[in-house]
Write a structure and sequence with these properties.
Low-confidence stretches: none
Strand content: 35-45%
Mean pLDDT: 95
Shape: globular
Length: 59
């Protein structure tokens, strides 16, 4: 197994959402699936989320 840093992007109706996760997997395809599973587990507690970083630019 190898360590992967996976960045997933979802384009939503009102913006984009990035999920970045570190996972252990045998290959890149399995790493993506593992990151998706971690996101699905985390989304169950979305009410507890707080943003810790921001980047603000003129549009």
């Amino acid at each position: 197994m190898a360590n992967y840093k996976v960045t997933l992007k979802a384009d939503l109706k009102r913006g984009s959402f990035y999920w970045v996760a570190n996972v252990n997997a045998d290959n890149e395809e399995e790493a993506e699936v593992a990151a998706e599973h971690l996101f699905m587990a985390e989304i169950e507690n979305a009410a507890d989320w707080n943003f810790s970083d921001s980047n603000i630019e003129p549009a």
